[in-house]
Structure formats: C-alpha cells, structure tokens
Amino acid sequence: MTIEVELPLEIELLMKASRELETLVRKRIELDIAESIKNDIFICGVLNTLLKRSDLTLEDANELDHMMKREMMKRLGWRK
C-alpha cells in the first residue's frame, strides 16, 4: 500500500540532499504509522469488548457525545 505524506519543506530539502537521511525518515514514518495503527486496532478491540456488555443504545451514545462536546466547547470558551 502506498501512502503519500507531506513533510515540511526544510525536511524535504534535507532528505533530497542525503539518501541516508531519506531512508531514515522513510523507515521512521513507516514504523510510526504502523505503531499508531496497531494501537488504534487494540483500543478498538478493547472498546468493542466493553460495549458488547453495555445497555447503551446508539441514541444514548450520540446524546452523550453531543453533551460532552458542548461542555468542552463551553470550558474552552468557544460556546456560551
């Protein structure tokens, strides 16, 4: 699978100047993305296991979601 990643110009210029640096950055990005995906899959599995035993409906979850977002926006001063 190919993923396009946009890097800051200064990093891109340094990578063009050094093949070793390009390889290092490419490997680092691949490892970071793979680790993030692995962690996300693990968390999804844990949450799915917890939710299987829950009595909450989809409507309950949506209501909680909106309530939490409203409260966060109020605390951040984005909403009154």
Can you characterise this structure?
The chain is mainly alpha-helical. The chain has three helices and no strands. It has a domain at 9-55. The longest helix has 34 residues, at 19-52. The chain starts with 8 loop residues before the first helix and ends in a 5-residue tail after the last helix. The mean pLDDT is 92.
Keywords:
80 residues; mainly alpha
Helices, strands, pairings?
Blueprint: H1 9-17, H2 19-52, H3 58-75
As a percent range, the share of strand residues is under 5%
Order of secondary-structure elements: HHH
What is the number of helices? 3
Low-confidence stretches: none
Largest sheet: none
Name the average pLDDT: 92
Range of helix content: over 70%
Structural class: mainly alpha
Q: Tally of extended strands?
A: 0
Overall, the morphology is elongated
Radius of gyration: 21 Å
Cα-to-Cα separation, first versus last residue: 45 Å
Short description:
It is built from three helices and no strands.
